[in-house]
Design brief:
This protein is of the alpha/beta class. 44% of the residues lie in helices and 16% in strands. Helix 2 packs parallel to helix 3.
Length: 410
């Protein structure tokens, strides 16, 4: 982003999320907090990357007790998520939090000069070319971990030509999720390439997920069929509500972005649906309630545990889909729309494993929901397959720890 446009972006986004107007100086590379030990820096732009990186950060803290871990973000929700996940570590000073500055040479130089990281770890698809360049000049090794790159994103980066090629070649390590990701990254110029798998498979659900999920299920109704509409994006709520219209299915509707909670509630009102907000759900639902709006934060695993099966948001519109691994880890069969291009490899693997089904067209959604709602045996079989699928793909954290160890020795 051009630096002079940043205030306009923060001001505009601040209307819906006032948190965007906090810590503004950090966006330009000015910080008040200081490190008191060597720093391992991990960049997790938003919520998904932060949750996925949790096992890696815990491993870093355990293996390198003489270091502090600095977690940087690009969004307030990402920062809030790490505050929840690493509350004790932040309180003890083992973990620091900050916003990554805008990608200009000056801001990147200030950031690196202030924290002096021994190692920088960028997660998934975060390529910050000025930052990588400045780190290279200062001799700070940089790695791109759990890297994924769709064909669409690869085409976009290829248009940047030498900028992309130079940035990738300056990285000390690129650990791709799949062979297809590695092939696309290599074609763009990446050199130090390995394949390590998807870090999201190593995320362990919170210990109290089963208990909280069971409690929520009692409120929803143990005998009702509960469909979770997970991480929905604009325009998808209508498609899902149309697909369940006239059925007895209870829809647990969980928008992807919290700033859309009010918008989705207005939609439910406009359609005349009987609904309850999750934050107001304190006693068992009446049988005539059709929708529960998941307007809380940090309860995704609880929501999955309370559901029979799910529809994955971001996949019914051409948006690339959302992470289906959390659902699989909780043993929840998932209906995937036709647009899962950001998670193509894991989608294919999940479908083959019978942990998920993918629609070729959104028009099929109604029939697929009806099929799973009527066939509890099929749902149970898919649930077992989902847990097996998750277990089969674990181990990425250890592979990444082995790969980055030589970089810290440098």
């Amino acid at each position: 982003m051009v630096a002079f446009l940043l205030p306009l972006k923060l001001f505009w986004r601040g209307f819906k999320q006032p948190e965007y107007r906090q810590h503004v100086a950090e966006r330009y590379g000015y910080y008040t907090q200081t490190a008191t030990a060597p720093v391992i820096w991990v960049h997790c732009v938003s919520v998904g990357e932060t949750r996925a990186t949790q096992p890696l950060i815990h491993a870093l803290l355990a293996h390198y007790p003489q270091h502090q871990v600095l977690i940087t973000h690009g969004t307030p929700t990402g920062r809030d998520t790490s505050s929840q996940l690493f509350k004790q570590e932040i309180a003890s000073g083992r973990v620091l939090q900050a916003y990554l500055p805008v990608d200009t040479a000056g801001a990147a130089r200030r950031f690196l000069a202030h924290f002096k990281p021994a190692l920088g770890l960028l997660m998934e698809t975060e390529l910050w070319f000025h930052l990588i360049g400045q780190a290279t000049q200062l001799g700070i090794p940089m790695a791109l971990l759990s890297a994924r790159l769709s064909a669409k994103s690869a085409a976009g980066y290829s248009k940047l030509g030498s900028l992309t090629r130079t940035g990738l070649q300056q990285l000390s390590l690129v650990a791709a999720q799949t062979a297809a990701d590695a092939e696309r990254l290599q074609a763009l110029g990446a050199k130090q390439l390995i394949i390590c798998g998807n870090l999201k498979f190593d995320v362990t659900p919170p210990a109290d997920s089963a208990i909280k999920g069971a409690e929520l299920r009692q409120l929803l109704g143990p005998d009702r069929t509960v469909l979770m509409a997970a991480s929905t994006r604009e325009g998808e709520e209508l498609l899902i509500l149309d697909a369940v219209q006239g059925s007895d299915v209870l829809t647990l509707l969980v928008p992807r972005h919290p700033q859309r909670f009010a918008e989705v509630e207005s939609l439910l009102k406009a359609r005349g649906l009987r609904y309850v907000l999750r934050t107001e759900l304190v006693q068992p639902l009446n049988i005539d309630v059709q929708v529960v709006l998941g307007n809380s934060m940090g309860e995704m695993y609880t929501y999955y545990e309370a559901s029979d099966f799910a529809v994955m948001g971001g996949s019914l519109q051409p948006l690339g889909g959302q992470n289906l691994i959390e659902a699989a880890a909780m043993g929840v069969p998932t209906i995937l729309g036709p647009h899962m291009f950001n998670f193509a490899q894991v989608t294919q693997a999940a479908v083959i494993a019978d942990a998920a089904v993918q629609l070729s067209d959104v028009a099929e959604l109604h029939d697929m929901i009806a099929t799973l709602a009527a066939d509890k045996s099929k749902v149970q079989t898919m649930a077992l397959a989902a847990k097996g699928f998750t277990a089969q793909h674990r181990g990425t954290t250890q592979r990444l720890m082995t790969a980055i160890a030589p970089l810290l020795k440098k």
